[in-house]
Protein backbone atom coordinates (compact mmCIF):
# COMPACT_ATOMS: atom_id res chain seq x y z
CA UNK A 1 0.00 0.00 0.00
CA UNK A 2 1.59 3.30 -1.13
CA UNK A 3 0.93 6.13 1.30
CA UNK A 4 0.84 9.92 1.14
CA UNK A 5 2.73 12.00 3.67
CA UNK A 6 0.77 12.13 6.93
CA UNK A 7 -1.39 9.09 6.14
CA UNK A 8 -1.59 6.13 8.52
CA UNK A 9 -2.56 2.47 8.25
CA UNK A 10 -3.13 -0.37 10.75
CA UNK A 11 -0.32 -2.88 11.28
CA UNK A 12 -2.06 -6.25 11.85
CA UNK A 13 1.10 -8.20 12.74
CA UNK A 14 3.04 -9.03 15.89
CA UNK A 15 6.39 -8.79 14.11
CA UNK A 16 7.42 -6.71 11.09
CA UNK A 17 10.43 -5.92 8.95
CA UNK A 18 10.97 -2.27 8.14
CA UNK A 19 13.05 -1.76 5.00
CA UNK A 20 14.61 1.56 4.03
CA UNK A 21 15.36 1.30 0.31
CA UNK A 22 17.04 3.34 -2.44
CA UNK A 23 18.78 2.96 -5.78
CA UNK A 24 22.54 3.07 -5.84
CA UNK A 25 24.95 4.25 -8.52
CA UNK A 26 27.96 6.50 -9.14
CA UNK A 27 27.90 9.51 -6.80
CA UNK A 28 24.98 8.23 -4.71
CA UNK A 29 25.64 8.55 -0.96
CA UNK A 30 25.31 5.50 1.25
CA UNK A 31 22.19 5.42 3.44
CA UNK A 32 21.80 4.06 6.97
CA UNK A 33 18.52 3.14 8.66
CA UNK A 34 17.90 3.71 12.35
CA UNK A 35 15.06 3.50 14.88
CA UNK A 36 14.30 5.58 17.96
CA UNK A 37 12.03 4.21 20.70
CA UNK A 38 10.12 7.13 22.20
CA UNK A 39 8.15 7.52 25.42
CA UNK A 40 4.99 9.63 25.84
CA UNK A 41 7.25 12.70 26.17
CA UNK A 42 8.24 12.30 22.53
CA UNK A 43 11.85 11.65 23.54
CA UNK A 44 13.96 8.62 24.27
CA UNK A 45 14.23 7.33 27.83
CA UNK A 46 17.98 6.75 27.48
CA UNK A 47 20.66 6.56 24.82
CA UNK A 48 19.94 2.84 24.56
CA UNK A 49 16.68 3.68 22.76
CA UNK A 50 18.54 4.37 19.51
CA UNK A 51 19.04 1.29 17.31
CA UNK A 52 21.42 1.68 14.34
CA UNK A 53 24.64 0.31 12.83
CA UNK A 54 26.72 0.96 15.95
CA UNK A 55 24.04 -0.20 18.41
CA UNK A 56 22.36 -3.00 16.54
CA UNK A 57 20.02 -4.44 19.18
CA UNK A 58 17.70 -2.84 21.73
CA UNK A 59 18.07 -4.16 25.27
CA UNK A 60 14.47 -5.42 25.18
CA UNK A 61 15.14 -7.41 22.01
CA UNK A 62 12.17 -5.69 20.36
CA UNK A 63 14.14 -3.85 17.67
CA UNK A 64 17.20 -5.05 15.74
CA UNK A 65 19.26 -3.55 12.96
CA UNK A 66 19.73 -6.39 10.45
CA UNK A 67 21.97 -4.70 7.90
CA UNK A 68 22.02 -4.06 4.17
CA UNK A 69 21.35 -6.07 1.06
CA UNK A 70 22.06 -5.08 -2.54
CA UNK A 71 20.43 -6.57 -5.64
CA UNK A 72 20.15 -5.24 -9.16
CA UNK A 73 21.18 -1.68 -8.33
CA UNK A 74 18.79 -1.42 -5.36
CA UNK A 75 19.84 -1.45 -1.70
CA UNK A 76 17.80 -2.01 1.45
CA UNK A 77 18.77 -1.47 5.08
CA UNK A 78 16.48 -3.44 7.38
CA UNK A 79 15.12 -3.11 10.90
CA UNK A 80 13.30 -6.04 12.53
CA UNK A 81 10.60 -5.02 15.03
CA UNK A 82 8.91 -7.48 17.39
CA UNK A 83 5.89 -5.39 18.35
CA UNK A 84 4.79 -7.90 20.97
CA UNK A 85 8.04 -7.30 22.88
CA UNK A 86 7.98 -3.50 22.81
CA UNK A 87 7.92 -2.23 26.39
CA UNK A 88 4.68 -0.56 27.55
CA UNK A 89 6.51 2.72 28.19
CA UNK A 90 7.37 2.99 24.48
CA UNK A 91 4.61 4.72 22.53
CA UNK A 92 6.33 5.34 19.19
CA UNK A 93 9.15 3.84 17.13
CA UNK A 94 10.53 6.41 14.73
CA UNK A 95 12.08 5.06 11.52
CA UNK A 96 14.83 7.32 10.23
CA UNK A 97 17.48 7.35 7.52
CA UNK A 98 20.77 9.24 7.30
CA UNK A 99 22.97 9.89 4.27
CA UNK A 100 26.70 9.19 4.44
CA UNK A 101 28.79 11.25 2.02
CA UNK A 102 26.13 13.56 0.57
CA UNK A 103 22.52 14.67 0.86
CA UNK A 104 19.23 12.95 0.05
CA UNK A 105 18.78 15.07 -3.05
CA UNK A 106 21.33 12.71 -4.61
CA UNK A 107 19.60 9.52 -3.41
CA UNK A 108 17.07 8.20 -5.96
CA UNK A 109 14.16 5.97 -5.05
CA UNK A 110 14.22 6.59 -1.29
CA UNK A 111 11.38 4.73 0.38
CA UNK A 112 10.34 2.85 3.51
CA UNK A 113 8.32 -0.37 3.52
CA UNK A 114 6.70 -2.32 6.34
CA UNK A 115 6.46 -6.08 5.72
CA UNK A 116 5.02 -8.91 7.76
CA UNK A 117 7.09 -12.02 8.49
CA UNK A 118 5.75 -13.66 5.34
CA UNK A 119 7.01 -10.80 3.16
CA UNK A 120 3.61 -9.22 2.47
CA UNK A 121 3.78 -5.43 2.19
CA UNK A 122 1.65 -3.70 4.84
CA UNK A 123 2.69 -0.12 4.10
CA UNK A 124 4.96 1.86 1.79
CA UNK A 125 6.00 5.50 1.67
CA UNK A 126 8.11 6.98 -1.15
CA UNK A 127 10.03 10.17 -0.43
CA UNK A 128 10.22 12.29 -3.59
CA UNK A 129 10.92 15.84 -2.41
CA UNK A 130 14.36 15.58 -0.78
CA UNK A 131 16.96 18.28 -1.52
CA UNK A 132 19.72 19.22 0.96
CA UNK A 133 18.56 17.00 3.83
CA UNK A 134 21.11 14.60 5.34
CA UNK A 135 18.65 12.80 7.62
CA UNK A 136 14.98 11.89 7.32
CA UNK A 137 12.23 10.67 9.58
CA UNK A 138 10.48 8.49 7.02
CA UNK A 139 7.74 7.08 9.22
CA UNK A 140 6.78 5.81 12.64
CA UNK A 141 5.09 2.85 14.27
CA UNK A 142 2.80 4.02 17.08
CA UNK A 143 0.22 2.67 19.50
CA UNK A 144 -3.44 3.60 19.17
CA UNK A 145 -6.11 2.04 21.39
CA UNK A 146 -4.10 -1.09 22.09
CA UNK A 147 -3.08 -1.69 18.46
CA UNK A 148 -0.17 -0.64 16.28
CA UNK A 149 -0.34 1.67 13.28
CA UNK A 150 2.21 3.10 10.83
CA UNK A 151 2.31 6.76 9.80
CA UNK A 152 4.20 8.22 6.82
CA UNK A 153 6.15 11.27 8.06
CA UNK A 154 8.75 12.52 5.55
CA UNK A 155 10.41 15.13 7.79
CA UNK A 156 13.95 16.12 6.76
CA UNK A 157 16.95 17.39 8.72
CA UNK A 158 20.06 19.10 7.37
CA UNK A 159 22.12 18.17 10.45
CA UNK A 160 22.54 14.46 9.77
CA UNK A 161 21.92 11.60 12.15
CA UNK A 162 23.62 13.50 14.97
CA UNK A 163 21.15 16.40 14.75
CA UNK A 164 18.14 14.13 14.39
CA UNK A 165 19.19 11.94 17.33
CA UNK A 166 19.91 14.97 19.51
CA UNK A 167 16.43 16.38 18.84
CA UNK A 168 14.96 13.19 20.29
CA UNK A 169 17.13 13.29 23.43
CA UNK A 170 20.15 11.19 22.44
CA UNK A 171 23.53 12.26 23.82
CA UNK A 172 25.95 12.10 20.91
CA UNK A 173 29.65 11.47 21.38
CA UNK A 174 31.32 14.33 19.52
CA UNK A 175 34.85 15.74 19.80
CA UNK A 176 34.93 18.53 22.35
CA UNK A 177 37.28 21.48 22.36
CA UNK A 178 39.60 21.51 25.40
CA UNK A 179 38.42 23.85 28.17
CA UNK A 180 40.14 27.18 28.53
CA UNK A 181 42.78 27.23 31.30
CA UNK A 182 41.57 28.67 34.58
CA UNK A 183 43.20 29.70 37.86
CA UNK A 184 41.68 27.98 40.85
CA UNK A 185 41.58 29.78 44.16
CA UNK A 186 41.92 27.76 47.39
CA UNK A 187 38.53 26.66 48.71
CA UNK A 188 37.30 25.07 51.85
CA UNK A 189 36.88 21.27 51.61
CA UNK A 190 33.43 20.31 50.36
CA UNK A 191 31.41 17.19 51.00
CA UNK A 192 31.91 14.53 48.35
CA UNK A 193 29.01 14.46 45.86
CA UNK A 194 26.76 11.44 45.73
CA UNK A 195 27.86 9.02 43.03
CA UNK A 196 25.79 9.19 39.84
CA UNK A 197 25.55 6.61 37.11
CA UNK A 198 27.76 7.41 34.15
CA UNK A 199 26.07 7.22 30.77
CA UNK A 200 28.32 6.77 27.75
CA UNK A 201 27.31 8.98 24.81
CA UNK A 202 26.24 7.24 21.63
CA UNK A 203 28.98 6.96 19.03
CA UNK A 204 27.48 7.60 15.58
CA UNK A 205 30.65 7.22 13.57
CA UNK A 206 31.56 3.96 11.92
CA UNK A 207 34.54 2.12 13.37
CA UNK A 208 37.82 3.27 11.85
CA UNK A 209 41.03 1.36 12.59
CA UNK A 210 44.32 3.26 12.75
CA UNK A 211 47.98 2.57 13.53
CA UNK A 212 47.34 3.78 17.07
CA UNK A 213 44.11 1.74 17.47
CA UNK A 214 44.48 -1.16 15.02
CA UNK A 215 42.07 -3.75 16.49
CA UNK A 216 38.36 -4.12 17.18
CA UNK A 217 36.22 -6.88 18.66
CA UNK A 218 33.34 -7.82 16.38
CA UNK A 219 31.29 -8.95 19.40
CA UNK A 220 31.56 -5.52 21.02
CA UNK A 221 30.24 -3.99 17.78
CA UNK A 222 27.33 -6.43 17.52
CA UNK A 223 28.91 -8.51 14.75
CA UNK A 224 28.36 -11.97 16.22
CA UNK A 225 26.28 -13.66 13.52
CA UNK A 226 25.18 -13.50 9.91
CA UNK A 227 27.33 -12.64 6.91
CA UNK A 228 30.24 -10.18 6.97
CA UNK A 229 31.11 -8.58 3.64
CA UNK A 230 34.67 -7.47 2.91
CA UNK A 231 35.16 -4.79 0.22
CA UNK A 232 38.20 -3.06 -1.22
CA UNK A 233 37.97 0.48 -2.61
CA UNK A 234 40.74 2.32 -4.44
CA UNK A 235 41.42 5.30 -6.68
CA UNK A 236 44.32 7.42 -7.90
CA UNK A 237 43.05 10.32 -5.79
CA UNK A 238 41.41 10.21 -2.40
CA UNK A 239 37.66 10.49 -2.85
CA UNK A 240 35.51 12.78 -0.67
CA UNK A 241 33.39 11.16 1.99
CA UNK A 242 35.99 8.78 3.43
CA UNK A 243 35.90 5.00 3.14
CA UNK A 244 32.95 3.59 1.25
CA UNK A 245 30.84 0.45 1.29
CA UNK A 246 31.23 -0.44 -2.41
CA UNK A 247 34.16 -1.67 -4.46
CA UNK A 248 34.96 1.29 -6.69
CA UNK A 249 36.81 0.43 -9.83
CA UNK A 250 36.81 3.66 -11.79
CA UNK A 251 40.54 3.33 -12.36
CA UNK A 252 40.41 -0.11 -13.98
CA UNK A 253 38.85 0.71 -17.37
CA UNK A 254 41.62 3.21 -18.19
CA UNK A 255 44.60 1.19 -16.95
CA UNK A 256 43.54 -2.44 -17.12
CA UNK A 257 44.31 -2.71 -13.41
CA UNK A 258 43.13 -6.01 -11.93
CA UNK A 259 43.33 -6.35 -8.16
CA UNK A 260 42.31 -9.65 -6.59
CA UNK A 261 40.83 -9.85 -3.11
CA UNK A 262 41.92 -13.09 -1.40
CA UNK A 263 41.92 -14.82 1.98
CA UNK A 264 44.10 -17.37 3.72
CA UNK A 265 42.12 -19.35 6.28
CA UNK A 266 42.86 -21.77 9.11
CA UNK A 267 40.02 -23.61 10.83
CA UNK A 268 40.02 -24.97 14.37
CA UNK A 269 40.33 -28.54 13.04
CA UNK A 270 43.65 -27.60 11.42
CA UNK A 271 42.31 -27.25 7.87
CA UNK A 272 44.17 -24.55 5.91
CA UNK A 273 43.60 -23.10 2.48
CA UNK A 274 43.15 -20.05 0.29
CA UNK A 275 40.10 -18.35 -1.23
CA UNK A 276 40.95 -16.58 -4.49
CA UNK A 277 40.04 -16.30 -8.16
CA UNK A 278 43.22 -18.10 -9.22
CA UNK A 279 42.38 -21.75 -9.77
CA UNK A 280 38.69 -20.96 -9.19
CA UNK A 281 39.19 -21.42 -5.45
CA UNK A 282 36.10 -19.37 -4.57
CA UNK A 283 35.43 -21.14 -1.24
CA UNK A 284 31.99 -21.73 0.28
CA UNK A 285 29.78 -19.80 2.68
CA UNK A 286 27.63 -22.51 4.30
CA UNK A 287 30.26 -25.23 4.53
CA UNK A 288 33.99 -25.31 5.13
CA UNK A 289 35.82 -22.92 4.87
CA UNK A 290 32.83 -20.53 5.52
CA UNK A 291 34.57 -17.89 3.38
CA UNK A 292 33.35 -17.15 -0.14
CA UNK A 293 34.52 -14.96 -3.01
CA UNK A 294 31.47 -14.06 -5.08
CA UNK A 295 33.36 -13.83 -8.34
CA UNK A 296 36.22 -12.22 -10.20
CA UNK A 297 35.31 -8.84 -11.69
CA UNK A 298 37.79 -8.00 -14.43
CA UNK A 299 35.59 -5.39 -16.12
CA UNK A 300 36.07 -2.45 -13.75
CA UNK A 301 32.32 -2.17 -13.10
CA UNK A 302 31.56 0.29 -10.34
CA UNK A 303 28.34 -1.27 -9.07
CA UNK A 304 29.38 -4.90 -8.98
CA UNK A 305 33.02 -5.38 -8.08
CA UNK A 306 34.29 -8.25 -5.95
CA UNK A 307 32.81 -9.25 -2.59
CA UNK A 308 34.44 -11.56 -0.08
CA UNK A 309 31.96 -12.85 2.50
CA UNK A 310 32.60 -14.57 5.85
CA UNK A 311 29.87 -16.60 7.62
CA UNK A 312 29.94 -15.47 11.27
CA UNK A 313 27.38 -18.11 12.19
CA UNK A 314 30.29 -20.57 12.09
CA UNK A 315 32.84 -18.39 13.86
CA UNK A 316 33.57 -21.18 16.36
CA UNK A 317 35.08 -23.16 13.45
CA UNK A 318 37.40 -20.31 12.44
CA UNK A 319 40.87 -19.97 13.97
CA UNK A 320 42.17 -17.16 11.79
CA UNK A 321 41.60 -15.51 8.41
CA UNK A 322 44.06 -13.23 6.64
CA UNK A 323 42.51 -10.90 4.05
CA UNK A 324 44.99 -9.79 1.40
CA UNK A 325 45.08 -8.30 -2.08
CA UNK A 326 47.32 -9.00 -5.04
CA UNK A 327 47.96 -7.15 -8.29
CA UNK A 328 47.14 -9.62 -11.03
CA UNK A 329 47.89 -7.23 -13.88
CA UNK A 330 47.91 -3.55 -14.82
CA UNK A 331 50.50 -2.21 -12.34
CA UNK A 332 53.89 -3.12 -10.88
CA UNK A 333 53.16 -1.96 -7.35
CA UNK A 334 50.55 -0.35 -5.11
CA UNK A 335 52.42 2.96 -5.19
CA UNK A 336 50.14 5.86 -6.07
CA UNK A 337 46.92 4.07 -5.15
CA UNK A 338 44.73 5.34 -2.34
CA UNK A 339 42.97 2.26 -1.01
CA UNK A 340 40.54 1.60 1.80
CA UNK A 341 39.06 -1.59 3.28
CA UNK A 342 35.55 -2.05 4.68
CA UNK A 343 34.29 -5.02 6.67
CA UNK A 344 30.50 -4.88 7.09
CA UNK A 345 28.96 -7.38 9.54
CA UNK A 346 25.28 -8.05 8.93
CA UNK A 347 24.41 -7.21 12.54
CA UNK A 348 27.19 -4.87 13.57
CA UNK A 349 28.99 -1.64 12.88
CA UNK A 350 31.04 -1.36 9.67
CA UNK A 351 34.78 -1.47 10.28
CA UNK A 352 36.99 0.45 7.89
CA UNK A 353 40.52 1.71 7.45
CA UNK A 354 42.79 3.25 4.86
CA UNK A 355 45.98 1.62 3.65
CA UNK A 356 49.27 3.32 4.27
CA UNK A 357 51.18 4.94 1.42
CA UNK A 358 53.16 2.36 -0.50
CA UNK A 359 56.78 3.25 -1.31
CA UNK A 360 57.88 -0.30 -2.18
CA UNK A 361 57.72 -2.35 -5.40
CA UNK A 362 54.95 -4.36 -3.74
CA UNK A 363 52.46 -6.54 -5.59
CA UNK A 364 50.77 -8.02 -2.51
CA UNK A 365 49.37 -6.39 0.61
CA UNK A 366 48.07 -7.98 3.81
CA UNK A 367 44.92 -6.03 4.64
CA UNK A 368 43.41 -7.44 7.83
CA UNK A 369 43.93 -10.40 10.16
CA UNK A 370 40.87 -11.89 11.86
CA UNK A 371 41.61 -14.17 14.83
CA UNK A 372 39.41 -16.13 17.23
CA UNK A 373 39.85 -15.15 20.87
CA UNK A 374 37.67 -17.39 23.01
CA UNK A 375 34.80 -17.29 20.52
CA UNK A 376 35.13 -13.58 19.75
CA UNK A 377 36.53 -12.64 16.36
CA UNK A 378 38.97 -9.73 16.57
CA UNK A 379 39.88 -7.72 13.47
CA UNK A 380 43.38 -6.26 13.26
CA UNK A 381 44.44 -3.71 10.67
CA UNK A 382 47.57 -4.92 8.89
CA UNK A 383 48.12 -2.56 5.91
CA UNK A 384 51.36 -4.41 5.27
CA UNK A 385 52.93 -4.20 1.82
CA UNK A 386 55.16 -7.15 0.92
CA UNK A 387 57.75 -7.55 -1.85
CA UNK A 388 57.98 -11.07 -3.31
CA UNK A 389 61.45 -12.43 -3.94
CA UNK A 390 62.34 -13.40 -7.49
CA UNK A 391 60.40 -16.49 -8.49
CA UNK A 392 58.15 -16.38 -5.39
CA UNK A 393 54.42 -15.82 -5.89
CA UNK A 394 52.51 -13.13 -3.97
CA UNK A 395 50.46 -15.88 -2.26
CA UNK A 396 53.56 -17.73 -1.06
CA UNK A 397 55.02 -14.41 0.11
CA UNK A 398 51.98 -13.77 2.34
CA UNK A 399 52.10 -17.36 3.59
CA UNK A 400 55.75 -17.01 4.62
CA UNK A 401 55.15 -13.66 6.32
CA UNK A 402 52.31 -15.04 8.46
CA UNK A 403 53.48 -18.61 8.94
CA UNK A 404 50.60 -20.43 7.25
CA UNK A 405 52.81 -23.30 6.09
CA UNK A 406 50.99 -24.27 2.89
CA UNK A 407 52.22 -25.90 -0.33
CA UNK A 408 51.74 -23.84 -3.49
CA UNK A 409 51.43 -24.77 -7.16
CA UNK A 410 51.12 -22.45 -10.19
CA UNK A 411 47.60 -21.30 -11.03
CA UNK A 412 45.81 -19.05 -13.50
CA UNK A 413 42.40 -17.52 -14.11
From TrEMBL:
InterPro entries: Stress/Tellurium_Resist (IPR051324), Tellurite_resistance_TerA (IPR017115), TerD (IPR003325). Pfam families: TerD (PF02342). Residues 182-191 have a biased composition (Low complexity). Residues 174-200 are annotated as: Disordered. Residues 2-168 form the TerD domain. Coiled coil: none annotated. Belongs to the CAPAB/TerDEXZ family. This is TerD family protein. It comes from Streptomyces chitinivorans.
Amino acid sequence: MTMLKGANVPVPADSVRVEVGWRTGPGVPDVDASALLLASSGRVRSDGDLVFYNQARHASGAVRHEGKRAAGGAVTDTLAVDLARVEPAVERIVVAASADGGDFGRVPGLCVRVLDTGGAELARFDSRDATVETAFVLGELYRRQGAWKFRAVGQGYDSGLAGLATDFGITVDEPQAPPAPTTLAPQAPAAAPSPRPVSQPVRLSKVTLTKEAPTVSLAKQGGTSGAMRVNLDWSTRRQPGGWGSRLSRALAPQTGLDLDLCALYELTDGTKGVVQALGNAFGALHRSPYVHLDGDDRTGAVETGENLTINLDHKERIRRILIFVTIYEGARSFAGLNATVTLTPQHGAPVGFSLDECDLPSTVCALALITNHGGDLVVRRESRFLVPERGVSPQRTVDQAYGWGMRWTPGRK
